[in-house]
Each structure stands twice: as C-alpha cells, then as structure tokens.
Amino acid sequence: MNTLRGWIFYFILGITVIPVCFAVLIAAPFRPVESRYDMMAAWGRFIIRTLRAVCGVRFEVRGMGNCPKEPAVVLSKHQSAWECIWLGSFLPCRAAYVYKKSLDRIPFLGWALWSLGQLGIDRSDGSGAFRTLMKKGPAFLKRPSWWIVLFPEGTRVPPGSRVKHKSGGARLAVAAGVPIIPVALDSGLCWPKNSVAKVPGVITVSIGRPMPTKGRSAKEVATEAEEWIERESASLLGEARSHA
C-alpha cells in the first residue's frame, strides 16, 4: 500500500511540476526573481500538503523562532528529497541552494533552477567549485530576504548513519560574517532513500539557535555545527523509534 501511495504521489508531482516550471521560465523576462521563486515555493507547499493527503506523511517544526532576520547560511541534515522541497517552501527567507550544476540540464525543473540564479557549482572541478561558491555566495547574502542553504554531508544519508560533513558552508559563513542556522531532521524514516514507498508518520524538523561566526575559525564553526546537527538528529531518531 505504501508503494502504491508513493506512485500516486509521484504522479501528482510529475504532472504539476512541468506547468509551474514552464510558468517560471515564461515569466523570467517580465517578473523579478523573487516573484518567480515564490511561484516555485507555492508549488512546494502544495507538494508537501499532497504528501500528507496521499501518503499520510506530516511534519512538525521545532525552533522556528530561532530563525534570525539577518542574512544566514543554513546547514541541514540530508536524508531525502523532502527537505529540498520543505526548506525552500517553509523557511521565513528565500533559500538559495548550493547544488550540482549538472542538475540544470534536467528538463523544466533544472531549467527553472537555472533561471532563478541559484548557486550551481561543478563538483568535478574540485577547488574551482569552492572558489565559485566563495565568489558568488557572499554577493548573494547581500540580497534582502535571502539565505543560502547547503547540505554539508554532500549526499543523502540514511537515518542512523553518519558521514563527515564538508566545511564549505562554514567557510562561506565565516568569510561573509553571517551566522549559521543548523537544521536537524528525521525525514528518511518517512521518505526512504531510493524507494518509491512513503511511510506514514511525522517528520520532525529541529532548527537550532544561530551560531555566530565573526572572530571564529571555519574549523571551529564547522565542528560546532556538525556536532549539533548529528546530536539533534540522533535524538529525533530515538524519539521517533520509541513512539513507533
């Protein structure tokens, strides 16, 4: 049943993403990027509601009041595609994602990302990718009502597993002099990696207090963020399993 519901969900996602992305592309010459981003965010909220209606996957948020009004870099746990949709649709500021530039070639969705001027980088370029991030990132943070979102693990990691976090997000935040907002979650329990099936339940998102970066080293900041994200994610996982 969970697999059938998953297929229904993906069918709705598939038939709605093309029209909204097409609308974003058509509007590019006429509407500012903020307006076109909000079109995508509205679709994201629709998809999150659809996931609840079709698959029984709900969410709760802890710590939304920790979000500052100033520019910031968001470092989030990454277990599924769910947080890619949720962060861009429910955070109080617009999210500029750091993502693989190769995604720009995906019909419609990738083209829409490209038209929004998100922070696509060529990961195969190694140090060149980091230089691109350090060049584009601080300039992006000067825009009003925008944050930069990164997944420091670099890939989706199943619940209960752990990989070393990359330090690029912390280095960017230190260079720009903006705080880091750490985000922990347990989305992989309801949206398993490489699975069509969606498991009914509640995804919990925990947003930590902003971590200052001014006067601190990138290594110190990266270590603090990683420890908080992993500790909090483990706590959420323990809670979820105890209630199962």
**SSE arrangement, N to C:** HHEEHEHEHEHEEH
Helices and strands: which structural class?
A: alpha/beta
Percent of residues in helices comes to 40-55%
Spatial separation of the terminal alpha carbons: 18 Å
Q: How many helices?
A: 7
Task: Please give the CATH class.
Answer: Alpha Beta
Secondary structure: number of strands: 7
Structural Rg: 18 Å
- Beta-strand fraction estimate: 15-25%
What does this structure look like?
The chain has a 7-stranded mixed beta sheet with strand order 1-7-6-2-5-3-4, sandwiched between helices. Strand 3 (94-100), helix 4 and strand 4 (119-121) form a beta-alpha-beta unit. The protein is α/β, with parallel strands linked by helices and 244 residues long. The chain has a single domain (2-243), classed as 3-Layer(aba) Sandwich (Glycerol-3-phosphate (1)-acyltransferase), CATH 3.40.1130. Helix content is 47%, strand content 16%.
